[in-house]
Write a structure and sequence with these properties.
Blueprint: H1 2-30, H2 32-40, H3 43-75, H4 79-95, H5 106-128, H6 140-166, H7 190-193, H8 195-206, H9 208-213, H10 225-242, H11 247-277, H12 282-310, H13 312-330, E1 337-338, E2 341-342, H14 349-379, H15 385-397, H16 402-414, H17 417-420, H18 422-435
Antiparallel strand pairs: 1-2
Length: 448
C-alpha cells in the first residue's frame, strides 16, 4: 500500500511536466513565436522585441525566486504557491488569444505572454523542490529523466493536435488539409491563436492528477506564512553570503546560469529563426518541433538512466559540448548556403540541415535539463531545498535576460538573425569551463 502511494506521488509529480510543457513547446518555440514573426512582418524586429520581453520577465523571476523559495521552506507550504502561479499560467496562456492580426498590439501580447511565463517558471521551482522527497538519492536521476521525458511526450502530443486540427498554414488548411476545427476563422488566424486557450485548458486538465496525488510531507518546525515572510529575508541573506564558501554549489549555479540561459535562447529563438531566415511557415516550424520533442523525450529518458548510473555531471558536460557545437552550426545554415556551400533557391538542403540540428537540440536539451535538476538536489541543502531551487532559478534567471537581450542587441546592430545567434555558443562554452569546478557529489558542508 505504501509503495502504491509512493508511486502515485511520483506519477502525480510527472504530470506537472506533462501539463506545463506546452507553454514551452507551443507558445515559446514552435507555434506562437513564429506567428508573431509573421504578424510583425520583420523577423529581426520580432526577434528583438521577443528578446526584450522575455529578458525583462527573467529579471522579475531572478529577483523573487530565492525569496519565495525561502518563505516556502520556512512555512512548509509549497502547494499554495503552486496553486497561485498555476492561475497566472492559465491567465497568461489564454490571453495570447487576443493577438488578432488586424488588432495586433505587441505590448499587450507580450504582457499576457510574460504573465503566463512567470506563472510557469515559478510553479516549476516549487514542484522541482519536491524531487528529493520522491525516491532514494540513487533513483533520482531516473525519476527526473522519466518525468522530463513524460513532459516532452505531452508537448509532442499537444503540438501534433495543434498542427493537425487547429493551426492553419499558408493555404488556410491544417497539416492534414482540413479547416481549423470548431469553425475557427483561418483568415483571422483563429486556428493558430487558439494555441493560447489550448495551452491553458491542457494545463487545467492534466494538473488534476498532480493536485490529487502529490502531498507535501509535514515539515518539523514549520511556521506561519507571516513568520516565514519576516524571517525569510535575513536567512536568505545569510545563505547568499555563504555561497562563495561552498565552492561546488557556487560553481554549479554559475555554470548552469550560463548554459541554461543559452539553451533557453536556442529554444526561444529556434522557431523565430527558422521562420525569419528560412522562411518557414508555422506548420513547417511545427514539424520541426515534433522532431525535436520526439528526440527530447527519448534522450531525456536515456539521460535519466545514464544519470543514475554515472551521475549527472558527465551527462551535463557531454550535452553542453554538443549544444555549443550545434549553436555555432546554426549560424551557417541559411536559404542561400549551408556550412559555406552555396545552394539554389529550390534546394531542400537548408531545411534538412535545420531539421537535423533541431533533433540534436531536442536530444541534448532534454537530457541536460533532467540531469541539471538532479545535480541541484546533490548540491543543495536538504532542509532548504525550495530555497535551493529558488537559487537555481536565480542562477537561471539572474542572467535570463543575457541570451535574449544579447541576441536582440546583436540582431539589432547587425540586422542579421544569423549573427544574432552567436552569443548562445559563447554562453555554452563559458558554462562548460565553470562546470569543471563542480564536485559531482556536492559539497559535504551544508549551507549556513
Amino acid at each position: 500500500m505504501a509503495q502504491s502511494a509512493a508511486q502515485k506521488r511520483i506519477w502525480g509529480w510527472w504530470w506537472f511536466d506533462w501539463a506545463s510543457q506546452p507553454y514551452n513547446t507551443l507558445l515559446i518555440t514552435f507555434i506562437f513565436g513564429p506567428y508573431v514573426v509573421g504578424v510583425v512582418g520583420d523577423g529581426s524586429r520580432a526577434q528583438t522585441i521577443w528578446g526584450y520581453g522575455i529578458g525583462f520577465a527573467g529579471i522579475l523571476l531572478a529577483l523573487l525566486a530565492p525569496l519565495l523559495g525561502a518563505i516556502a521552506d520556512k512555512s512548509g507550504r509549497r502547494m499554495g504557491f503552486i496553486w497561485f502561479f498555476s492561475i497566472l499560467y492559465v491567465i497568461g496562456a489564454w490571453g495570447v488569444w487576443f493577438s488578432a492580426p488586424d488588432s495586433f498590439n505587441i505590448w499587450q501580447v507580450m504582457l499576457f505572454f510574460c504573465i503566463g511565463l512567470v506563472g510557469m517558471e515559478f510553479a516549476t521551482i516549487f514542484t522541482n523542490a519536491m524531487l528529493p522527497d520522491l525516491a532514494p538519492r540513487e533513483e533520482l536521476g531516473k525519476v527526473s529523466g522519466s518525468g522530463w521525458a513524460w513532459g516532452y511526450v505531452g508537448g509532442l502530443i499537444s503540438l501534433i493536435l495543434m498542427l493537425t486540427l487547429l493551426a492553419e498554414g499558408d493555404t488556410g488548411k491544417t497539416l492534414i488539409g482540413i479547416d481549423p476545427i470548431f469553425g475557427l476563422d483561418a483568415a483571422a488566424r483563429e486556428g493558430t491563436r487558439s494555441v493560447g486557450p489550448l495551452t491553458a485548458i491542457w494545463y487545467i486538465v492534466f494538473m488534476i492528477p498532480f493536485f490529487l496525488w502529490v502531498r507535501e510531507p509535514k515539515k518539523p518546525g514549520a511556521v506561519s506564512i507571516g513568520a516565514a515572510i519576516s524571517g525569510a529575508w535575513p536567512e536568505l541573506k545569510t545563505t547568499l553570503a555563504s555561497l562563495p564558501k561552498n565552492r561546488s554549489l557556487f560553481a554549479f549555479l554559475g555554470s548552469s546560469m550560463l548554459y541554461r540561459d543559452a539553451l533557453n535562447g536556442v529554444y526561444t529563438f529556434g522557431g523565430i529563426y527558422a521562420a525569419g531566415v528560412l522562411g518557414w511557415s508555422v506548420v513547417s516550424v511545427g514539424i520541426f518541433g515534433i522532431l525535436a520533442a520526439t528526440t527530447g523525450a527519448l534522450f531525456a529518458w536515456l539521460g535519466g538512466k545514464a544519470d543514475s548510473r554515472w551521475g549527472p555531471k558527465p551527462v551535463i558536460m557531454f550535452n553542453v559540448i554538443v549544444l555549443a557545437v550545434v549553436a555555432l552550426a546554426i549560424v551557417f545554415v541559411s536559404r542561400t548556403s549551408v556550412f559555406g556551400i552555396a545552394v539554389g533557391p529550390e534546394s531542400n538542403l537548408p531545411d534538412i540541415s535545420f531539421y537535423i540540428l533541431g533533433a540534436i537540440i531536442g536530444a541534448g536539451g532534454g537530457s541536460l535539463q533532467s540531469a541539471s535538476r538532479t545535480m541541484m538536489v546533490r548540491q543543495g541543502d536538504e532542509e532548504k531545498m525550495t530555497e535551493g531551487f529558488g537559487l537555481y532559478a536565480l542562477s537561471g534567471k539572474a542572467t535570463a535576460f543575457l541570451a535574449p537581450l544579447s541576441i536582440g542587441i546583436v540582431t539589432d546592430i547587425t540586422g542579421s538573425q544569423q549573427y544574432g545567434i552567436l552569443p548562445v555558443a559563447a554562453l555554452f562554452c563559458i558554462g562548460l569551463i565553470l562546470l569543471m569546478f563542480v564536485n559531482p557529489e556536492g559539497s559535504k558542508r551544508v549551507l549556513a
